[in-house]
Design goal:
- The complex is a heterodimer.
- By secondary structure, chain A is mainly β.
- Chain A is built from no helices and 13 strands.
- In chain A, strands 2, 4, 5, 6, 9, 12 and 13 form a seven-stranded mixed beta sheet that branches. In chain A, strands 1-3-8-7 form a four-stranded antiparallel beta sheet, with no helix packed on it.
- The N and C termini of chain A lie far apart (37 Å).
- By secondary structure, chain B is an all-beta fold.
- In chain B, the strands form three sheets. In chain B, strands 2, 5, 6, 10, 11 and 12 form a six-stranded mixed beta sheet that branches.
- The chains are: A mainly beta, B mainly beta.
- At the A-B interface, strand 4, strand 5, strand 9, strand 11 and strand 12 of A face strand 6, strand 10 and strand 11 of B.
Chain lengths: 116, 113
């Protein structure tokens, strides 16, 4: 069964450093998402991406964040200058379409980011 | 805006007990409702969904019915197993132009043999 994959599974970084989290969505999916889950809190939407552009972003997704689909298979989340409060589990998700409507989102296993 | 309120955990049950995890929502439009499950060390997996009022989603013995009149989508299972131990998330997406998922806080379920 096709699945969303994410790398790395864990990343530790120093405050102020740049990190890039990578995701490979399911191959025929057209909609891509990033969510995050701070330890002990709910899963929060960050950004959605369709047709090579951001379709929606939350207020969390400020100028320090960016997304890219560099090569038609990967989907990346970059945090330009990490803060302590960016420590969280980051989930990538993708969805396809059926009859013009978006289908269920499928999630990757997550990248646990720890900012020291 | 959209929101999901979920039963606080953790919940601990004995094997073969009946399970209910409550979920209520607030949404504009006509949302789809979901239950996702997160097993230890894994990502979020879709457990079941319902896309319109009175629909019942079901999978692996779990069920949830979309109740528009009470804005609820409670998760139930008649006889839980140790392998059901996980964190359960209720979520919604608004069908009208906004497909992001809004999640509840999650309920940690532990089943004791």
């Amino acid at each position: 069964e096709p699945e969303v994959t994410q790398t790395p599974s864990h990343q530790v970084t120093q405050m102020g450093q740049e990190v890039i989290l990578r995701c490979v969505p399911i191959s025929n999916h057209l909609y891509f998402y990033w969510y995050r889950q701070i330890l002990g809190q709910k899963v929060e939407f960050l950004v959605s991406f369709y047709n090579n552009e951001i379709s929606e972003k939350s207020e969390i997704f400020d100028d320090q964040f960016s997304v890219e689909r560099p090569d038609g298979s990967n989907f990346t989340l970059k945090i330009r200058s990490t803060k302590l409060e960016d420590s969280a589990m980051y989930f990538c998700a993708s969805s396809g379409t059926s009859g013009g409507l978006q289908e269920t989102q499928y999630f990757g296993p997550g990248t646990r980011l720890l900012v020291l | 805006g959209n929101s999901v309120t979920q039963m606080e955990g953790p919940v601990t049950l004995s094997e073969e007990a009946f399970l209910t995890i409550n979920c209520t929502y607030t949404a504009t439009g006509y949302p789809s409702l979901f239950w996702y499950v997160q097993y230890p060390g894994e990502g979020l997996q879709l457990l079941l969904k319902a896309t319109k009022a009175d629909d019942k989603g079901s999978n692996k013995g779990f069920e949830a019915t979309y109740r528009k009149e009470t804005t609820s989508f409670h998760l139930e299972k008649g006889s839980v197993q140790v392998s059901d131990s996980a964190v359960y998330f209720c979520a919604l997406s608004d069908l009208f132009g906004n497909e992001k998922l809004t999640f509840g806080t999650g309920t940690r379920l532990t089943i004791i043999p």
